[in-house]
Design brief:
single chain; 192 residues; alpha+beta; seven-stranded antiparallel sheet; 30% helix
């Protein structure tokens, strides 16, 4: 038969919960914050280093005078997702602000492609520098459903660049591909 322990002995054996050691907890929180800040600083240094490696890229062209006077072939409103070296969808170009994602307004005329980015540097691609347009699903850190990205390839200096755009209405991408294909085929002999 088991002997029951009296209640006063059980009460005497109970211990209170451990008191929180605030100095240790604060030390851990500060340590984690310092680590996160260090990782952020390393990422920022990597971004600057990539920009310095791409410093040989010429300045981007500005929109020419009288561009707004011409009749636009197409307009697009959407997102700019970045630019990469042509054919290498992970090799992001960060020089001259090409790596900064932003809203975008595209206007295509016979003179070329005007890229207006509120909050970031816009640029102009002359018609002779345009090479092709196609559907893609990914570009430098952005993956979308099949055909969700409009990628325009253009020449800048001696480098071919892919720039990725996503229209607010993605169904309009095909019109851009068709129009840019016909525009680049007319400059085939001179530009390429």
């Amino acid at each position: 038969m088991t002997k029951l322990t009296p209640l006063y002995q059980l009460a005497a054996e109970q211990k209170s919960a451990a008191v929180t050691d605030w100095s240790a907890r604060i030390s851990w929180v500060v340590g984690i914050l310092v680590f996160v800040a260090f990782v952020y600083w390393l990422m920022r240094q990597g971004w600057k280093w990539r920009g310095s490696l791409q410093s040989d890229l010429p300045e981007l062209a500005a929109t020419p005078e009288g561009f707004a006077d011409g009749a636009p072939l197409l307009k697009l409103s959407g997102r700019y997702h970045g630019s990469t070296t042509a054919g290498q969808w992970l090799d992001r170009i960060v020089a001259h602000g090409l790596g900064t994602r932003s809203r975008v307004e595209l206007t295509l005329t016979d003179q070329g492609l005007d890229v207006v980015r509120p909050g970031a540097n816009g640029f102009f691609v002359p018609a002779a520098a345009l090479r092709e347009a196609r559907h893609e699903r990914a570009i430098a850190g952005k993956v979308l459903p099949e055909g969700g990205l409009l990628v325009i390839t253009w020449a800048h200096g001696d480098k071919l660049i892919d720039s990725g755009f996503r229209a607010d209405q993605a169904a309009g991408h095909q019109a851009w591909i068709d129009t840019l294909t016909s525009l680049t085929s007319t400059t085939e002999g001179t530009a390429r």
